[in-house]
Design a protein that fits this description.
Strands 6-7-8-3-9-10 form a 6-stranded mixed sheet. It is 35% helix and 27% strand. A hairpin with a 2-residue loop joins strand 4 and strand 5. The protein is an alpha/beta fold. The longest helix is centred in the last third of the chain and has 18 residues.
Length: 227
């Protein structure tokens, strides 16, 4: 059991404030959220409403000013950076608008990286990467500079899922792609969500993407509400 029943992800009273000169800006004003296993959630809202800030806090990439985040019942912000990184590596996959692949490594090496970071032997990690890359229709030996934008993003999706995480956090994952490649990447994410039973939280401006999720939440005035 987790801190919030069967939730994979829970946050309670998350507040995030920023200092701007002599003033203080409150971007998040007490956000509560629960995400169930295999649930697909879209978070929408105006530019500057704090969607990316919230996603970074949920994934342990930024600290809340106050409030708590739990992943599989474990406090994301309670320990040091090493323990936080271990939680991210074990439970969470990330997909960003820009792929963030490492240019000096092949597609297989990029996808295998989360497994290598956790100490899995390289042959086993590369074997798993090859299998997943095959699933997303990519070869192994091309470096990011040799791939199209859509292919790079498919590799990024494979990297997010290589550890079979309980949760994938995606920040505008199709925002840098044309319509055809965007549809391919989204369909791939939804297919793997169903197969692996991975929960999915997507921040998006695209309402057609949001409509394909189980639930749509709007971030407005620092709080989440159901649309």
């Amino acid at each position: 059991m987790t801190e919030a029943g069967s939730s994979v992800l829970s946050c309670r009273g998350v507040v995030r404030k920023f200092r701007e000169g002599g003033s203080e800006l409150e971007v998040l004003s007490g956000v509560d959220l629960d995400v169930a296993p295999a649930e697909r959630v879209a978070i929408i809202g105006a530019s500057g409403s704090g969607k990316t800030t919230l996603l970074q806090i949920l994934g342990g990439l930024d600290d809340p000013t106050s409030g708590e985040v739990f992943v599989d019942g474990k406090a994301m912000h309670g320990g040091n950076e090493v323990s936080r990184a271990e939680l991210r590596n074990r439970y969470i996959g990330f997909v960003y608008q820009f792929h963030h692949l490492l240019p000096e490594f092949t597609a297989a090496e990029n996808v295998a990286m989360p497994l290598l970071i956790r100490g899995e032997p390289k042959p086993e990690a590369l074997s798993k990467a090859a299998e997943l890359l095959g699933r997303v229709g990519l070869g192994l030996d091309h470096k990011p500079g040799e791939l199209s934008g859509g292919e790079r993003q498919r590799a990024a999706v494979a990297r997010a899922l290589i550890t079979r995480p309980q949760l994938v956090l995606a920040d505008e994952p199709t925002g840098n792609l044309d319509a055809g490649n965007g549809e391919h990447v989204l369909s791939l994410m939804l297919e793997l969500n169903e197969e692996l039973r991975t929960s999915l939280v997507i921040v998006t401006h695209d309402h057609t993407i949001a409509e394909r999720m189980d639930r749509i939440l709007v971030l407005e005035n620092g709080r989440l509400r159901t649309r």
